[in-house]
Amino acid sequence: MDFTWTAEDAAYRARVRNFLDRELPDNWDEIARHGPGSPEQTEFSLEFCPKLAAEGLLVPHWPEEWGGAARPPWEHFILGEEMWRVGEPRGAQYMNVNWIGPVLMKYGSEAQKKRYIPEMASGKAIWCQGFSEPNAGSDLASLQTRAVRDGDDYVVNGQKIWTSYAGLATTCFLLVQTSGAQGGRSGIAIFLVPMDTPGIEVRAIPSLIGHGDIHEVFFTDVRVPASCRLGEEGEGWTIISYALANERVGIPRYEMGTHELDAMVSELQRRGQFSDSVVRSRAAAAAAACEAARLQVYRVVDGRARGLAPGNESNLARLAVVAAEHAVADFGMDFLPDCFSGSKHLSMLSHHERAIVTGIAAGAAEIQLNLVARRHLNLPKGA
């Protein structure tokens, strides 16, 4: 297998890096430190993403009819790697690029596509995803938020938790159970809900990972037009499976981890502390974990490039990324603990905080392990 990038790929990566060098401000690390869902980074992304769009670097992999250039999947991942290498300046809008937009293209009505996709392609849309609940975290089949049909509307009642970016989002990609369904996967439906709809209450959850990143969202007699339903009742599980296959490998955190590991090694060398064999061995192990994660993700991208249906590879890739992120974070905490306080090494601190949620976002790592056990290793389900 040839792992060498083509000259065209290398030129594209250089183009993205040149753009970032030109457009990221000197205080970018300070802005990024607030977190992707913070007012500071959201405001920045609403200025930055339209510039990306103008350069043809926001959604190049999308079809031309929706503002893209139908570029190969590999370019999409080169773009994602370069964005995450510097700390993801697209903020919450990476979700639009990676999976919300493609899901709408595949399953949305013409009216939904025309309403939402152009705004995403121009870099001006902030969404949140209403998935997890207090009693249904990564087990989406157990969700209890319910939508009851009432004429041309549905009435939604329930609660979501850990909802990223809800405080500033304009639209929610909401999962519910529908009236009359038996529950479980067969009853799931998806609605595209404006966040200013009466009856929606958002409460921020204080956290280590950034101000404004996660929230509780309460739905009390929220009336949602049936035209906001994505697909049919009961089709939600099929749609969300497609979405998660994109999301689980759409965040190349291994690139940020590699970048920060290099910075850690440079700092240890500057201090004269990198000659220790234990330190060097741990650094090598973390670097190997990052490369293993990269190759697992590339396996999934290769399948997409060849038009193959998503398989168990996305679960394996997700676990590899979690392992890599934790290896880098643990290395830093063990050998450079003083770099994770104060303002001298903001990018290292940001990486460490984001690594905390790597094993939770897009489906907990434990759930991924169960999926790998059943679908990849064909192990029996426990009693």
Could you characterize the architecture of this molecule?
This protein is of the alpha+beta class and 383 residues long. The protein has helices at residues 7-23, 28-33, 39-54, 73-85, 94-107, 110-121, 236-247, 253-270, 277-305, 313-335, 346-356, 365-376; strands at residues 127-130, 146-150, 153-161, 171-178, 188-194, 200-204, 215-225, 229-230. Strands 1, 2, 3, 4, 5, 6, 7 and 8 form an eight-stranded mixed β-sheet that branches. The mean pLDDT is 86.
Could you give the count of β-strands?
Answer: 8
Strand count, sense and barrel status of the largest sheet are: 8 strands, mixed
User: How many discrete structural domains?
Assistant: 3
- Total count of helical runs of at least 4 residues: 12
Strand content: 5-15%
Order of helices and strands: HHHHHHEEEEEEEEHHHHHH
CATH architecture of the largest domain: Up-down Bundle
Briefly note the CATH topology name of the largest domain.
Answer: Butyryl-CoA Dehydrogenase, subunit A, domain 3
Mean pLDDT: 86
